[in-house]
Amino acid sequence: MDISVAAAAAVHALVERRQTVATAESLTGGLVAATIVEIPGVSAVYRGGLVVYATELKARLAGVPEGLLAERGPVDGDVAAALAEGARERCGADWGLATTGVAGPEPQDGKPVGLVFVAVAGPAGTRVRELKLDGNRAAVRTESVTAVLQLLTDSLRCAPTAA
C-alpha cells in the first residue's frame, strides 16, 4: 500500500470514529507525523507527537522504562509498545503510534538493518508488529510509516466503537 493511501485510510477512520492519535517516533524521525498531517481534515484527530531519536529521550519524554531500555536496547517490541503507550498517554490521545528500528546503513547494537518494530496502543490494548525490511535507509523508513499506519487502520477496524 502507498504511504499516502495508508495515511488517508487511517485519518478517515479516526475522523469517522471521532477519535484522536499521537505519535512517538525513533527511526522515522517525524515522518509518521509529517505523513499524517498531509491529509486534509487531520486537525480534528492528530494531537501531536514525540521524536525520540536518542535512547535516553525514549525514557525521559515518552516514558519507556529505563530498565527495559538498558536490558534490551531501543530496537525491541516491548520498547515499541511502551513508546506507543507513552505517546497516547502524554499527548492525551485515544491512540498512540510508535516506530523503532534500524534504518541503516549500518547495524545498531547487534540488530540488523531493516529490523523494525511498529506499535499501536489503543483503548483495548497494544499491538506490536515486527518487520524485516529490505532496501536503503529511505525505503526502510517509508515502509515503517506505511506499516504503522496500516496497523492503526487494522486496529480501528477491530476495535469496538464508543457508546
Automatic annotation (TrEMBL):
Protein name (database record): Competence protein
Pfam family for this entry, one: CinA
InterPro entries referenced in this protein's UniProt entry, alphabetically: CinA-like_C, CinA_C
Domain CinA C-terminal: 7-155
Domain of life (superkingdom): Bacteria
Organism: Actinoplanes campanulatus
